[in-house]
Amino acid sequence: MSKKELTCIVCPNGCQLEAMLENSDSGSLQITEITGHLCEKGPEWAEQELTHPVRTVISNILVESGDLPLVSVRTDAPVPRNMIFDVMKEIKAAKTKAPVAIGQILIKHPAGTGCNIIATKNVRNV
Amino acid sequence: MNTIKHDVVVIGGGPAGLAAAIAARKSGCKDVLLIERDKRLGGILNQCIHDGFGLHKFDEALTGPEYAQRFIDEFNSLGIDSMLSTIVLSVDGKRNLYVSSRKSLTRIEAGSVILSMGCRERTAGAISLPGTRPAGIYTAGAAQNFINLQNIMVGKKVVILGSGDIGMIMARRMTLEGAKVEAVFEILPYPSGLARNIQQCLNDYDIPLYLSTSVIEIHGKERVTGVTVAGTDKNFKPIPGTERHVPCDTILLSVGLIPENELTRGAGVQMEARTGGAGVDDTFMTGVPGIFSCGNVLHVHDLVDHVSDEASLVGEYAVRYLDGEIKPPESYIKIEPQQGVRYVLPQKVSGMRDFTLSLRVTTPSRDRAVWVKDGDRKVARKKMIRLHPAEMIRINIKKEKLQGAKVLEVSVE
Protein backbone atom coordinates (compact mmCIF):
# COMPACT_ATOMS: atom_id res chain seq x y z
CA MET A 1 0.00 0.00 0.00
CA SER A 2 1.28 3.49 -0.83
CA LYS A 3 0.07 7.06 -0.51
CA LYS A 4 0.13 9.72 -3.21
CA GLU A 5 -0.55 13.44 -2.76
CA LEU A 6 -2.14 15.42 -5.58
CA THR A 7 -3.32 18.97 -6.12
CA CYS A 8 -6.67 18.97 -7.88
CA ILE A 9 -6.67 21.43 -10.80
CA VAL A 10 -10.37 21.28 -11.65
CA CYS A 11 -11.21 24.60 -9.97
CA PRO A 12 -9.49 27.40 -8.07
CA ASN A 13 -10.07 25.64 -4.74
CA GLY A 14 -7.02 23.50 -5.58
CA CYS A 15 -7.89 20.75 -3.10
CA GLN A 16 -4.97 18.77 -1.70
CA LEU A 17 -5.98 15.18 -2.35
CA GLU A 18 -4.56 12.02 -0.86
CA ALA A 19 -4.91 8.79 -2.79
CA MET A 20 -4.27 5.38 -1.23
CA LEU A 21 -2.86 2.96 -3.77
CA GLU A 22 -2.53 -0.78 -3.77
CA ASN A 23 -0.89 -3.16 -6.22
CA SER A 24 -3.57 -5.45 -7.54
CA ASP A 25 -2.99 -9.12 -8.37
CA SER A 26 -2.59 -8.27 -12.04
CA GLY A 27 0.20 -5.83 -11.15
CA SER A 28 -1.69 -2.63 -12.00
CA LEU A 29 -2.22 0.11 -9.45
CA GLN A 30 -5.57 0.15 -7.70
CA ILE A 31 -6.87 3.25 -6.00
CA THR A 32 -8.48 2.22 -2.75
CA GLU A 33 -9.36 5.60 -1.27
CA ILE A 34 -9.25 9.31 -2.14
CA THR A 35 -9.62 11.99 0.53
CA GLY A 36 -9.27 15.77 0.83
CA HIS A 37 -11.74 16.83 -1.86
CA LEU A 38 -14.46 19.44 -1.40
CA CYS A 39 -16.57 18.19 -4.30
CA GLU A 40 -17.23 14.98 -6.22
CA LYS A 41 -15.09 16.15 -9.14
CA GLY A 42 -11.98 15.61 -6.99
CA PRO A 43 -11.91 11.78 -6.87
CA GLU A 44 -12.87 11.62 -10.54
CA TRP A 45 -9.97 13.90 -11.43
CA ALA A 46 -7.52 12.04 -9.16
CA GLU A 47 -8.38 8.72 -10.75
CA GLN A 48 -7.79 10.20 -14.20
CA GLU A 49 -4.57 11.88 -13.06
CA LEU A 50 -3.17 8.68 -11.56
CA THR A 51 -4.03 6.46 -14.49
CA HIS A 52 -3.99 8.69 -17.55
CA PRO A 53 -3.21 12.38 -16.88
CA VAL A 54 -4.67 14.83 -19.40
CA ARG A 55 -4.44 18.59 -19.96
CA THR A 56 -6.06 21.24 -22.14
CA VAL A 57 -3.36 22.76 -24.35
CA ILE A 58 -3.56 26.49 -24.88
CA SER A 59 -1.56 28.68 -27.23
CA ASN A 60 -1.83 31.02 -30.24
CA ILE A 61 -1.82 30.52 -34.00
CA LEU A 62 -0.50 33.02 -36.54
CA VAL A 63 -3.15 34.94 -38.46
CA GLU A 64 -2.72 36.60 -41.82
CA SER A 65 -4.46 39.90 -42.56
CA GLY A 66 -6.18 40.04 -39.19
CA ASP A 67 -6.67 42.97 -36.82
CA LEU A 68 -4.42 40.94 -34.50
CA PRO A 69 -1.28 38.98 -35.48
CA LEU A 70 -2.36 35.96 -33.41
CA VAL A 71 -5.53 34.12 -32.57
CA SER A 72 -5.67 32.38 -29.20
CA VAL A 73 -6.54 28.68 -29.39
CA ARG A 74 -7.17 25.65 -27.19
CA THR A 75 -7.80 21.96 -27.57
CA ASP A 76 -11.54 21.23 -27.47
CA ALA A 77 -10.84 18.31 -25.13
CA PRO A 78 -7.91 17.53 -22.84
CA VAL A 79 -5.04 15.57 -24.40
CA PRO A 80 -2.65 13.10 -22.73
CA ARG A 81 -0.11 15.07 -20.74
CA ASN A 82 2.81 13.45 -22.52
CA MET A 83 1.41 14.68 -25.86
CA ILE A 84 1.46 18.41 -24.95
CA PHE A 85 4.68 19.20 -26.81
CA ASP A 86 3.65 17.19 -29.88
CA VAL A 87 0.43 19.17 -30.04
CA MET A 88 2.38 22.40 -29.53
CA LYS A 89 4.62 21.58 -32.48
CA GLU A 90 1.60 21.48 -34.81
CA ILE A 91 0.15 24.65 -33.31
CA LYS A 92 3.43 26.48 -33.91
CA ALA A 93 3.65 25.35 -37.51
CA ALA A 94 0.07 26.36 -38.28
CA LYS A 95 -1.13 29.54 -39.94
CA THR A 96 -4.63 30.77 -40.64
CA LYS A 97 -6.36 33.64 -42.42
CA ALA A 98 -8.67 36.24 -40.93
CA PRO A 99 -11.53 36.39 -40.24
CA VAL A 100 -11.49 33.79 -37.47
CA ALA A 101 -14.46 33.15 -35.18
CA ILE A 102 -14.55 31.69 -31.68
CA GLY A 103 -15.05 27.92 -31.86
CA GLN A 104 -13.73 27.60 -35.41
CA ILE A 105 -11.66 24.45 -35.89
CA LEU A 106 -8.15 25.42 -36.98
CA ILE A 107 -6.39 22.03 -36.71
CA LYS A 108 -8.08 18.64 -36.82
CA HIS A 109 -6.66 15.85 -34.64
CA PRO A 110 -3.22 17.37 -33.92
CA ALA A 111 -0.46 14.79 -33.33
CA GLY A 112 -2.97 12.01 -33.85
CA THR A 113 -5.02 12.93 -30.79
CA GLY A 114 -8.79 12.81 -30.93
CA CYS A 115 -9.17 16.51 -30.19
CA ASN A 116 -9.31 19.60 -32.40
CA ILE A 117 -7.60 22.95 -32.00
CA ILE A 118 -10.27 25.64 -31.86
CA ALA A 119 -10.09 29.45 -31.87
CA THR A 120 -10.93 31.19 -28.59
CA LYS A 121 -10.99 34.72 -29.98
CA ASN A 122 -12.64 36.54 -32.86
CA VAL A 123 -10.13 38.10 -35.25
CA ARG A 124 -11.45 40.50 -37.85
CA ASN A 125 -10.19 40.83 -41.37
CA VAL A 126 -8.41 44.08 -42.16
CA MET B 1 -14.53 71.76 -25.92
CA ASN B 2 -17.70 69.81 -26.54
CA THR B 3 -19.99 69.04 -23.58
CA ILE B 4 -22.32 66.04 -23.56
CA LYS B 5 -24.52 64.40 -20.94
CA HIS B 6 -25.01 60.75 -20.03
CA ASP B 7 -26.93 59.06 -17.24
CA VAL B 8 -24.41 56.33 -16.36
CA VAL B 9 -20.77 56.55 -17.45
CA VAL B 10 -18.57 53.49 -16.98
CA ILE B 11 -14.80 53.98 -17.07
CA GLY B 12 -12.98 50.89 -18.35
CA GLY B 13 -14.15 48.10 -20.69
CA GLY B 14 -12.67 45.09 -18.94
CA PRO B 15 -14.74 42.44 -17.17
CA ALA B 16 -15.92 44.84 -14.44
CA GLY B 17 -16.91 47.65 -16.80
CA LEU B 18 -18.69 45.32 -19.21
CA ALA B 19 -20.74 43.64 -16.48
CA ALA B 20 -21.55 46.99 -14.85
CA ALA B 21 -22.68 48.57 -18.13
CA ILE B 22 -24.81 45.53 -19.02
CA ALA B 23 -26.45 45.53 -15.58
CA ALA B 24 -27.10 49.27 -15.75
CA ARG B 25 -28.80 48.86 -19.12
CA LYS B 26 -30.85 45.91 -17.88
CA SER B 27 -31.89 47.90 -14.82
CA GLY B 28 -33.76 50.20 -17.17
CA CYS B 29 -31.24 52.93 -17.92
CA LYS B 30 -31.23 53.65 -21.65
CA ASP B 31 -28.34 56.10 -21.55
CA VAL B 32 -25.25 54.16 -20.56
CA LEU B 33 -21.82 55.05 -21.96
CA LEU B 34 -18.68 52.95 -21.55
CA ILE B 35 -15.25 54.49 -22.14
CA GLU B 36 -12.27 52.27 -22.95
CA ARG B 37 -8.72 53.40 -23.68
CA ASP B 38 -7.83 50.33 -25.75
CA LYS B 39 -9.19 49.81 -29.24
CA ARG B 40 -11.16 46.73 -28.22
CA LEU B 41 -13.28 45.72 -25.27
CA GLY B 42 -12.37 42.92 -22.87
CA GLY B 43 -9.46 44.43 -20.97
CA ILE B 44 -6.81 42.12 -19.59
CA LEU B 45 -8.87 39.03 -20.50
CA ASN B 46 -7.75 39.47 -24.13
CA GLN B 47 -4.23 38.44 -23.20
CA CYS B 48 -5.22 35.83 -20.58
CA ILE B 49 -5.53 33.03 -23.13
CA HIS B 50 -5.33 30.26 -20.49
CA ASP B 51 -8.48 28.55 -19.25
CA GLY B 52 -10.18 28.40 -15.89
CA PHE B 53 -12.41 31.45 -16.20
CA GLY B 54 -16.12 31.14 -15.63
CA LEU B 55 -16.15 27.96 -13.52
CA HIS B 56 -18.47 29.59 -10.98
CA LYS B 57 -20.57 31.65 -13.35
CA PHE B 58 -20.95 29.34 -16.33
CA ASP B 59 -19.78 25.99 -14.91
CA GLU B 60 -17.28 25.83 -17.76
CA ALA B 61 -13.51 26.36 -17.93
CA LEU B 62 -13.39 29.15 -20.48
CA THR B 63 -10.30 30.98 -21.67
CA GLY B 64 -10.05 34.71 -20.97
CA PRO B 65 -11.00 35.82 -24.49
CA GLU B 66 -14.00 33.45 -24.54
CA TYR B 67 -15.20 34.71 -21.17
CA ALA B 68 -14.85 38.32 -22.33
CA GLN B 69 -16.66 37.66 -25.60
CA ARG B 70 -19.80 36.43 -23.80
CA PHE B 71 -20.05 39.83 -22.14
CA ILE B 72 -19.04 41.77 -25.26
CA ASP B 73 -21.77 39.98 -27.24
CA GLU B 74 -24.37 40.85 -24.62
CA PHE B 75 -23.08 44.44 -24.43
CA ASN B 76 -23.42 44.79 -28.20
CA SER B 77 -26.81 43.12 -28.41
CA LEU B 78 -28.14 45.59 -25.84
CA GLY B 79 -26.90 48.43 -28.04
CA ILE B 80 -24.89 50.10 -25.28
CA ASP B 81 -22.80 53.10 -26.36
CA SER B 82 -19.04 52.92 -26.10
CA MET B 83 -16.09 55.14 -26.85
CA LEU B 84 -12.99 53.10 -27.69
CA SER B 85 -9.41 54.37 -27.94
CA THR B 86 -10.52 57.07 -25.55
CA ILE B 87 -8.95 58.00 -22.26
CA VAL B 88 -10.51 59.72 -19.28
CA LEU B 89 -8.12 62.44 -18.20
CA SER B 90 -9.93 63.39 -15.02
CA VAL B 91 -13.14 63.10 -13.06
CA ASP B 92 -14.24 65.70 -10.56
CA GLY B 93 -16.41 65.43 -7.47
CA LYS B 94 -19.43 66.72 -9.39
CA ARG B 95 -19.16 63.84 -11.89
CA ASN B 96 -17.72 65.86 -14.77
CA LEU B 97 -15.39 63.75 -16.89
CA TYR B 98 -12.75 65.18 -19.19
CA VAL B 99 -12.22 62.71 -21.98
CA SER B 100 -9.66 62.65 -24.76
CA SER B 101 -9.92 60.66 -27.98
CA ARG B 102 -7.94 60.96 -31.18
CA LYS B 103 -10.44 63.41 -32.58
CA SER B 104 -11.48 65.56 -29.69
CA LEU B 105 -11.51 66.62 -26.09
CA THR B 106 -14.93 66.24 -24.51
CA ARG B 107 -16.52 67.11 -21.20
CA ILE B 108 -19.12 64.62 -20.05
CA GLU B 109 -21.66 65.44 -17.35
CA ALA B 110 -22.53 62.09 -15.81
CA GLY B 111 -25.52 61.25 -13.63
CA SER B 112 -23.53 58.50 -12.00
CA VAL B 113 -20.01 57.25 -12.61
CA ILE B 114 -18.76 53.68 -12.33
CA LEU B 115 -15.02 53.39 -11.83
CA SER B 116 -13.80 50.09 -13.28
CA MET B 117 -10.27 50.85 -14.43
CA GLY B 118 -8.70 47.66 -13.14
CA CYS B 119 -5.18 47.42 -11.82
CA ARG B 120 -1.60 47.40 -12.98
CA GLU B 121 1.42 45.39 -11.97
CA ARG B 122 4.01 46.25 -9.38
CA THR B 123 7.28 46.92 -11.16
CA ALA B 124 10.99 46.44 -10.43
CA GLY B 125 11.04 49.98 -9.06
CA ALA B 126 8.06 49.35 -6.81
CA ILE B 127 9.82 46.48 -5.04
CA SER B 128 13.26 48.16 -4.99
CA LEU B 129 14.88 45.34 -6.96
CA PRO B 130 18.63 45.55 -6.37
CA GLY B 131 21.33 45.56 -9.05
CA THR B 132 21.69 47.01 -12.53
CA ARG B 133 18.88 47.81 -14.95
CA PRO B 134 19.68 45.89 -18.13
CA ALA B 135 17.16 44.90 -20.81
CA GLY B 136 15.25 41.68 -20.19
CA ILE B 137 13.27 42.59 -17.08
CA TYR B 138 9.51 42.48 -17.59
CA THR B 139 6.45 42.32 -15.45
CA ALA B 140 4.71 39.00 -16.11
CA GLY B 141 1.70 40.76 -17.61
CA ALA B 142 3.87 42.81 -19.98
CA ALA B 143 5.54 39.60 -21.18
CA GLN B 144 2.07 38.07 -21.57
CA ASN B 145 1.02 41.01 -23.71
CA PHE B 146 4.13 40.73 -25.92
CA ILE B 147 3.79 36.97 -26.40
CA ASN B 148 0.01 36.53 -26.62
CA LEU B 149 -1.05 39.72 -28.37
CA GLN B 150 1.97 40.97 -30.33
CA ASN B 151 3.77 37.73 -31.20
CA ILE B 152 7.04 38.92 -29.68
CA MET B 153 9.02 36.36 -27.68
CA VAL B 154 10.76 38.04 -24.75
CA GLY B 155 13.55 35.60 -23.82
CA LYS B 156 15.02 32.12 -23.79
CA LYS B 157 16.29 31.48 -20.29
CA VAL B 158 13.90 32.78 -17.71
CA VAL B 159 13.79 33.38 -13.99
CA ILE B 160 10.52 34.36 -12.37
CA LEU B 161 10.46 36.50 -9.29
CA GLY B 162 7.31 36.14 -7.23
CA SER B 163 4.79 33.31 -7.25
CA GLY B 164 1.71 35.22 -8.29
CA ASP B 165 -0.68 33.48 -10.66
CA ILE B 166 0.34 35.49 -13.72
CA GLY B 167 3.99 34.60 -13.13
CA MET B 168 3.21 30.88 -12.92
CA ILE B 169 0.95 31.02 -15.96
CA MET B 170 3.75 32.74 -17.87
CA ALA B 171 6.21 30.08 -16.72
CA ARG B 172 4.06 27.49 -18.52
CA ARG B 173 3.43 29.74 -21.48
CA MET B 174 7.12 30.43 -22.05
CA THR B 175 7.99 26.75 -21.63
CA LEU B 176 5.44 25.83 -24.30
CA GLU B 177 6.99 28.49 -26.55
CA GLY B 178 10.40 26.85 -26.19
CA ALA B 179 12.01 28.90 -23.43
CA LYS B 180 13.71 27.32 -20.45
CA VAL B 181 12.22 28.53 -17.19
CA GLU B 182 14.90 27.99 -14.56
CA ALA B 183 12.88 28.61 -11.42
CA VAL B 184 10.30 30.67 -9.59
CA PHE B 185 11.56 32.47 -6.47
CA GLU B 186 9.15 33.60 -3.76
CA ILE B 187 10.27 35.71 -0.81
CA LEU B 188 7.34 34.57 1.36
CA PRO B 189 7.32 31.15 3.04
CA TYR B 190 4.16 30.27 1.08
CA PRO B 191 3.17 30.68 -2.58
CA SER B 192 1.07 33.72 -3.39
CA GLY B 193 -0.82 32.12 -6.30
CA LEU B 194 -3.33 29.30 -6.46
CA ALA B 195 -2.36 25.69 -5.71
CA ARG B 196 -3.77 24.50 -9.04
CA ASN B 197 -1.33 26.76 -10.87
CA ILE B 198 1.63 25.34 -8.95
CA GLN B 199 0.53 21.94 -10.20
CA GLN B 200 -0.48 22.65 -13.80
CA CYS B 201 2.01 25.44 -14.58
CA LEU B 202 5.11 24.48 -12.58
CA ASN B 203 5.04 20.81 -11.50
CA ASP B 204 3.79 19.63 -14.90
CA TYR B 205 6.93 21.09 -16.49
CA ASP B 206 9.38 20.36 -13.66
CA ILE B 207 9.86 24.05 -12.92
CA PRO B 208 11.07 24.39 -9.33
CA LEU B 209 9.46 26.85 -6.89
CA TYR B 210 11.77 28.10 -4.13
CA LEU B 211 9.99 29.64 -1.16
CA SER B 212 11.63 32.05 1.33
CA THR B 213 14.07 32.92 -1.44
CA SER B 214 14.65 36.22 -3.16
CA VAL B 215 16.71 37.83 -5.87
CA ILE B 216 19.38 39.92 -4.15
CA GLU B 217 21.21 41.09 -7.26
CA ILE B 218 20.64 41.40 -10.98
CA HIS B 219 23.66 41.00 -13.27
CA GLY B 220 24.24 42.26 -16.80
CA LYS B 221 24.96 45.53 -18.52
CA GLU B 222 23.10 45.58 -21.85
CA ARG B 223 20.98 42.47 -21.22
CA VAL B 224 20.37 40.43 -18.09
CA THR B 225 23.02 37.72 -17.72
CA GLY B 226 21.87 36.25 -14.42
CA VAL B 227 20.65 36.82 -10.89
CA THR B 228 22.01 36.12 -7.45
CA VAL B 229 19.40 34.60 -5.19
CA ALA B 230 19.52 33.89 -1.47
CA GLY B 231 17.37 32.31 1.18
CA THR B 232 15.55 34.83 3.36
CA ASP B 233 14.78 34.82 7.07
CA LYS B 234 11.44 35.65 8.61
CA ASN B 235 12.17 39.38 8.29
CA PHE B 236 12.80 38.83 4.55
CA LYS B 237 16.53 39.55 5.01
CA PRO B 238 18.98 37.44 2.95
CA ILE B 239 20.71 34.70 4.93
CA PRO B 240 24.51 34.99 4.48
CA GLY B 241 26.08 31.91 2.91
CA THR B 242 22.94 30.90 0.97
CA GLU B 243 23.69 33.01 -2.11
CA ARG B 244 23.84 31.31 -5.49
CA HIS B 245 24.08 32.49 -9.06
CA VAL B 246 21.42 31.60 -11.63
CA PRO B 247 22.26 32.44 -15.27
CA CYS B 248 19.31 33.81 -17.29
CA ASP B 249 18.54 36.34 -20.02
CA THR B 250 15.08 37.29 -18.81
CA ILE B 251 13.43 38.09 -15.49
CA LEU B 252 9.66 38.14 -15.10
CA LEU B 253 8.19 39.88 -12.09
CA SER B 254 4.98 38.57 -10.57
CA VAL B 255 4.96 40.53 -7.36
CA GLY B 256 1.49 41.90 -7.00
CA LEU B 257 -1.06 44.22 -8.49
CA ILE B 258 -1.89 47.82 -7.71
CA PRO B 259 -5.41 49.19 -8.28
CA GLU B 260 -5.16 52.00 -10.80
CA ASN B 261 -6.81 54.81 -8.88
CA GLU B 262 -5.39 58.08 -10.19
CA LEU B 263 -8.83 59.15 -11.45
CA THR B 264 -10.43 58.09 -8.16
CA ARG B 265 -8.07 60.24 -6.10
CA GLY B 266 -8.53 63.12 -8.52
CA ALA B 267 -12.25 63.01 -7.85
CA GLY B 268 -11.60 63.49 -4.15
CA VAL B 269 -12.68 59.97 -3.20
CA GLN B 270 -11.46 58.77 0.18
CA MET B 271 -9.10 55.81 -0.27
CA GLU B 272 -8.52 52.70 1.85
CA ALA B 273 -4.88 51.84 2.54
CA ARG B 274 -5.70 48.15 3.12
CA THR B 275 -7.21 47.53 -0.33
CA GLY B 276 -5.51 50.28 -2.33
CA GLY B 277 -8.97 51.14 -3.62
CA ALA B 278 -11.81 53.47 -2.71
CA GLY B 279 -13.68 53.10 0.54
CA VAL B 280 -17.23 51.99 -0.32
CA ASP B 281 -20.54 51.20 1.35
CA ASP B 282 -22.92 48.31 0.67
CA THR B 283 -23.99 49.85 -2.65
CA PHE B 284 -20.32 50.20 -3.69
CA MET B 285 -20.74 53.95 -3.61
CA THR B 286 -17.58 55.81 -2.70
CA GLY B 287 -17.50 58.77 -0.33
CA VAL B 288 -18.45 61.00 -3.28
CA PRO B 289 -22.18 60.71 -4.03
CA GLY B 290 -22.91 59.12 -7.40
CA ILE B 291 -19.40 57.73 -7.90
CA PHE B 292 -19.22 53.93 -7.63
CA SER B 293 -16.32 51.52 -7.88
CA CYS B 294 -16.00 47.82 -8.73
CA GLY B 295 -13.61 45.14 -9.93
CA ASN B 296 -9.84 45.25 -9.51
CA VAL B 297 -9.71 49.02 -9.16
CA LEU B 298 -11.68 48.57 -5.93
CA HIS B 299 -9.79 45.55 -4.59
CA VAL B 300 -7.70 42.97 -6.41
CA HIS B 301 -9.74 39.84 -7.07
CA ASP B 302 -8.45 36.33 -7.76
CA LEU B 303 -11.46 35.24 -9.84
CA VAL B 304 -13.05 37.14 -12.69
CA ASP B 305 -16.36 35.45 -11.88
CA HIS B 306 -16.46 37.45 -8.66
CA VAL B 307 -15.55 40.63 -10.54
CA SER B 308 -18.51 40.12 -12.87
CA ASP B 309 -20.91 39.45 -10.00
CA GLU B 310 -19.72 42.47 -8.05
CA ALA B 311 -19.86 44.75 -11.10
CA SER B 312 -23.38 43.58 -12.00
CA LEU B 313 -24.60 44.74 -8.61
CA VAL B 314 -22.82 48.06 -9.03
CA GLY B 315 -24.42 48.67 -12.43
CA GLU B 316 -27.81 48.22 -10.81
CA TYR B 317 -27.00 50.46 -7.83
CA ALA B 318 -25.71 53.21 -10.11
CA VAL B 319 -29.11 53.29 -11.83
CA ARG B 320 -31.04 53.16 -8.57
CA TYR B 321 -28.99 56.12 -7.38
CA LEU B 322 -30.15 58.07 -10.44
CA ASP B 323 -33.72 57.13 -9.64
CA GLY B 324 -33.26 58.56 -6.14
CA GLU B 325 -33.66 55.17 -4.49
CA ILE B 326 -30.24 55.17 -2.88
CA LYS B 327 -29.42 57.74 -0.30
CA PRO B 328 -26.67 57.57 2.32
CA PRO B 329 -28.19 56.54 5.69
CA GLU B 330 -28.13 58.77 8.78
CA SER B 331 -25.37 56.62 10.19
CA TYR B 332 -23.37 53.71 8.87
CA ILE B 333 -22.43 50.43 10.53
CA LYS B 334 -18.65 50.21 10.31
CA ILE B 335 -16.92 46.96 9.43
CA GLU B 336 -13.47 46.45 10.90
CA PRO B 337 -10.86 43.78 10.16
CA GLN B 338 -9.52 42.20 13.34
CA GLN B 339 -7.20 39.30 14.11
CA GLY B 340 -6.09 37.38 11.05
CA VAL B 341 -7.95 39.56 8.54
CA ARG B 342 -6.05 41.73 6.06
CA TYR B 343 -9.00 43.66 4.70
CA VAL B 344 -12.76 43.76 4.51
CA LEU B 345 -15.02 45.19 1.85
CA PRO B 346 -17.31 47.12 2.05
CA GLN B 347 -15.87 49.08 4.95
CA LYS B 348 -19.29 50.36 6.04
CA VAL B 349 -22.90 49.32 5.45
CA SER B 350 -26.29 50.95 5.77
CA GLY B 351 -27.96 47.97 7.43
CA MET B 352 -30.88 48.46 5.02
CA ARG B 353 -29.99 45.69 2.59
CA ASP B 354 -28.36 42.27 2.34
CA PHE B 355 -24.75 42.38 1.22
CA THR B 356 -21.74 40.19 0.48
CA LEU B 357 -18.75 40.76 2.71
CA SER B 358 -15.45 40.18 0.88
CA LEU B 359 -12.27 39.67 2.85
CA ARG B 360 -8.77 38.29 2.78
CA VAL B 361 -6.85 36.63 5.59
CA THR B 362 -3.31 37.64 6.57
CA THR B 363 -1.68 34.19 6.64
CA PRO B 364 -2.45 30.65 5.49
CA SER B 365 -4.13 28.33 8.02
CA ARG B 366 -6.45 25.32 8.25
CA ASP B 367 -9.69 24.43 9.97
CA ARG B 368 -10.65 27.88 11.17
CA ALA B 369 -13.79 29.94 11.04
CA VAL B 370 -14.29 33.50 9.94
CA TRP B 371 -16.45 35.30 12.46
CA VAL B 372 -18.47 38.45 11.95
CA LYS B 373 -19.52 39.84 15.32
CA ASP B 374 -21.44 42.81 16.66
CA GLY B 375 -19.89 43.05 20.12
CA ASP B 376 -20.44 39.55 21.52
CA ARG B 377 -23.29 38.74 19.15
CA LYS B 378 -22.65 36.43 16.23
CA VAL B 379 -23.73 38.01 12.94
CA ALA B 380 -22.19 35.39 10.65
CA ARG B 381 -19.71 32.58 10.79
CA LYS B 382 -18.10 30.69 7.94
CA LYS B 383 -16.18 27.50 8.56
CA MET B 384 -13.19 27.05 6.28
CA ILE B 385 -11.04 23.98 5.71
CA ARG B 386 -8.25 26.01 4.11
CA LEU B 387 -7.62 29.73 4.41
CA HIS B 388 -5.10 31.47 2.19
CA PRO B 389 -4.31 35.14 1.51
CA ALA B 390 -4.47 34.38 -2.22
CA GLU B 391 -8.12 33.34 -1.94
CA MET B 392 -10.78 35.93 -1.35
CA ILE B 393 -13.50 34.84 1.06
CA ARG B 394 -17.08 35.98 0.53
CA ILE B 395 -19.83 35.81 3.15
CA ASN B 396 -23.46 36.70 2.48
CA ILE B 397 -25.01 38.69 5.28
CA LYS B 398 -28.75 39.31 5.69
CA LYS B 399 -29.99 42.73 6.73
CA GLU B 400 -32.06 41.17 9.56
CA LYS B 401 -28.78 40.30 11.26
CA LEU B 402 -27.70 43.94 11.29
CA GLN B 403 -30.45 45.48 13.40
CA GLY B 404 -29.02 47.69 16.12
CA ALA B 405 -25.42 46.98 15.12
CA LYS B 406 -22.85 49.79 15.29
CA VAL B 407 -19.58 48.08 14.45
CA LEU B 408 -19.01 44.66 12.88
CA GLU B 409 -15.73 43.03 13.73
CA VAL B 410 -14.36 40.36 11.40
CA SER B 411 -11.77 37.88 12.62
CA VAL B 412 -10.29 34.43 12.04
CA GLU B 413 -10.66 32.12 15.05
The helix-and-strand class of chain B reads alpha/beta
- Overall pLDDT of chain A, averaged? 92
Low-confidence stretches of chain A: none
Total domains of chain A: 2
The number of distinct helices of chain B, counting runs of at least 4 residues, comes to 7
- Overall strand count of chain A: 10
Structural class of chain A: alpha+beta
CATH topology heading of the largest domain in chain A: CPE0013-like fold
Rounded mean pLDDT of chain B is: 95
Distance between the termini of chain A: 62 Å
Report the biggest beta sheet of chain B as strand number plus sense, adding barrel if it closes: 7 strands, mixed
Give your account of this protein's structure.
The complex is a heterodimer of chains A (126) and B (413). The model of chain A has no long low-confidence stretch (mean pLDDT 92). Helices cover 17% and strands 39% of the residues of chain A. Chain A has a 5-stranded mixed beta sheet with strand order 8-5-6-10-9. Chain A has helices at 41-51, 84-93, and strands at 2-7, 16-23, 29-35, 54-55, 58-64, 70-75, 79-80, 95-97, 105-108, 116-119. Chain A has 2 domains: 2-52; 58-119, Roll (CPE0013-like fold). In chain A, strand 9 (105-108) and strand 10 (116-119) form a beta hairpin. Chain A is an alpha+beta fold. Chain A is elongated. With 413 residues, chain B is an alpha/beta fold. Chain B has 3 domains: 1-120 and 257-328, FAD/NAD(P)-binding domain (3-Layer(bba) Sandwich), CATH 3.50.50; 123-255, FAD/NAD(P)-binding domain, CATH 3.50.50; 331-413, Immunoglobulin-like (Sandwich). Chain B is built from 7 helices and 27 strands. In chain B, the strands form 7 sheets. In chain B, strands 1, 2, 5, 6, 7, 8 and 19 form a 7-stranded mixed beta sheet that branches. A 5-stranded parallel beta sheet of chain B has the order 10-17-11-12-13. Chain B has a 5-stranded mixed beta sheet with strand order 22-20-27-24-25, with no helix packed on it. Chain B is globular. The mean pLDDT of chain B is 95. Classes of the chains: A alpha+beta (126), B alpha/beta (413). At the A-B interface, strand 5, strand 6 and helix 2 of A face helix 2, helix 3 and helix 5 of B.
